[in-house]
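[audit] Reproducing an earlier prediction to check determinism. Same input, same settings, fresh worker. If the C-alpha cells differ from the archived copy the diff job will pick it up downstream; this log only records the rerun itself.
[audit] input (220 residues):
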Amino acid sequence: MKIEIYIPEKLSDITLEQYQKFSKLNTEDNQNSSFLLHKMVEIFCRLDLKDIARIKYQYVNSIVSDLNNMFNTKAKLIPTFTLKGVEYGFIPKLDDITLGEYIDLDNNLSDWETMHKAMAVLYRPVTLKKGDRYQIEEYTAKEDTNTFKDMPLDVVMGCLVFFWSLNNELLQITLKYLAKEMGENLTTQQRQALEESGVGINQSMAWLKEMLPNSTTLLN
C-alpha cells in the first residue's frame, strides 16, 4: 500500500498551529530522539503516526533534512497577508501603539502557546489600502484570536525576526548614547550589564534571542 506524503516546501506551507504543536514536544529531553523525529514528520507532513513507521528510514531522514533547510531560511517582515478571504495588515506605525495593545503583546509574544494572541494584536483587517499604504481596524481586545492559528508561519517568523532586529538596534543606539554621555567608552563589564538588563527595553524581546535559533533548527 502506497503512502502519499505531503512535504512543505516553504514556511508559508506550515501553519502557526502546526508549529505550536511541535514546539511543545521540541524540548531538551526529546532532542535527537526517534519520538521527536516521528512527531516532526507527523505534524508537518500531515501523516498518521502509524503510517510513518512504514516509511523507509532514509526517506524520513531526507524529509527531516528538507524541513530543517526550510526552517533555516531567513524570514522577513510581511506587511500584509490574506487568511480565509480577509486581508490583514501589520500595525502601520508602532509608535502609535496603545497601552492595551502593548500589554497584550508583551504578555503573549514570548510564548509559542499564546503566539496566535500576539499575532491578533500585530495584524488586523485592512480597512483602506492605496499602493503600499494601508489602514487597519482599531484594536478591541475582542478579536477572534483562534483564527490566527491558521496563519502561515513565514508571517509569524518574519514578525519575530523584525522585533529581534529592532531590539538589537535600540540596544546599540542606547550603548552609544551612554558611552557619549560618560565621555568614555563603556567597559566590557558595563556593556555586559546593560545587555543583560535590557536597558529598559521590553524584556520579552530577550526571549527572542533564544527562541529564534532554537526554532529554526528543529532536529539534528
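[audit] rerun output stored. Observation attached for the diff report: The longest helix spans residues 153-182.
[audit] end
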